[in-house]
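Standup notes, structure subgroup. Blocker cleared on the glycine input:
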Amino acid sequence: MTEINVKTKKPYTVKIGNGLLQKIGEELKALGLDGKALIVTDDNVAPLYLATVKESLENKGFEVFSCVIAHGEESKNAQNLINLLNFAAESTMSRTDTFVALGGGVVGDLCGFAAATYMRGAGFVQLPTSLLAAVDSSVGGKTAIDLEAGKNLAGAFYQPELVLCDIDTFATLPKNEFSNGMSEVIKYGMFCDSELLDALASDSFNIEKTVARCVEIKARVVADDEFDKGERAFLNFGHTIAHTVELLSGYKTPHGSAVAIGMVAITKAAVEAGICESEALICLLPLLKKYSLPEACPYSVDEVYKAALKDKKNAHGKITLVLPTAKGESILKKCDYHELHKIIELGLK
Ligand code: NAD
Ligand code: GLY
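Run returned:
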């Protein structure tokens, strides 16, 4: 098992390894937690892992409740948040009781936001079961729901007490969901870790080491900029154009595929602009292929540009882009809209 400490204001540990779901009860006890636990999960994950988590908690004396939502992004909505809060209140949970997110990023974001707002903050642990949740959404404390006007528009920073990542759960993950997660893994390599890129390209791929490396990077970035005021933007490598692809496709293009397309576009643009060594692109393209991810953007420069102007990260007429400079290296650059247009033009050539 690998343990990584996240040094945020409220510090916590991420544990990554085999057979960890069976140990959730003892892990929570060891943290001094007791009382009630509300497991939030979805209808794909529940038949696979809910009973194990429930049993482990009950064996350690927790009174366990569970709430199963429909799988998919549509569930990350205001109605489900209110339903969860009402359910917690009807179950007479107190703020010292614990919300347990068992699932992918949808469950984690929704459950985390409920934990953040229930009685102004209850206990919260993350049990990520998708690769994306393991390497990204379960760490760092961003919780959210989607509004009619867009994704993640209401949320809170709320760090968990613990993240327990049982890598055995990836055995049941559909292949396309594994690819989605791999896109974020490649992202970490692209913006700051050329050794990770080499490991991903090699045949000695080790999932525990890979997840651990991504979590180490995320933990470092988040500890330096917990509230997303600066350096945390590095985590958005490839994401500006990715968000436009998601928007233009009516959210039909999966996030991981969109990030792959976004990473190619920004890397091409940086190479074309002469600020990035071509090795970065030469490394990225075969990796995307290896992990069944797309590279070509199906939208025009103007479509992408117009959609990028709607990005919620735009501020004061500028947008911060993560530009690669070499394989495994990048910088942050505040661009005005003219520069943004130029970059999209170069990236989609
Ligand atoms: P998801 O939660 O929808 O999970 C993907 C699919 O895999 C779902 O159908 C789910 O039921 C299924 N699944 C999950 N684990 C499984 C398993 N072990 N076996 C079988 N099926 C399994 O999506 P995701 O890709 O995990 O997360 C995407 C969400 O995360 C988005 O809402 C995104 O906005 C959010 N996100 C949040 C952050 C953050 O920092 N909070 C970061 C990145 C993404
Ligand atoms: N997924 C981006 C972040 O956590 O900031």
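Discussed briefly. Residues 101 and 126 are 5 Å apart (CA to CA).
Next: hand off to the docking folks.
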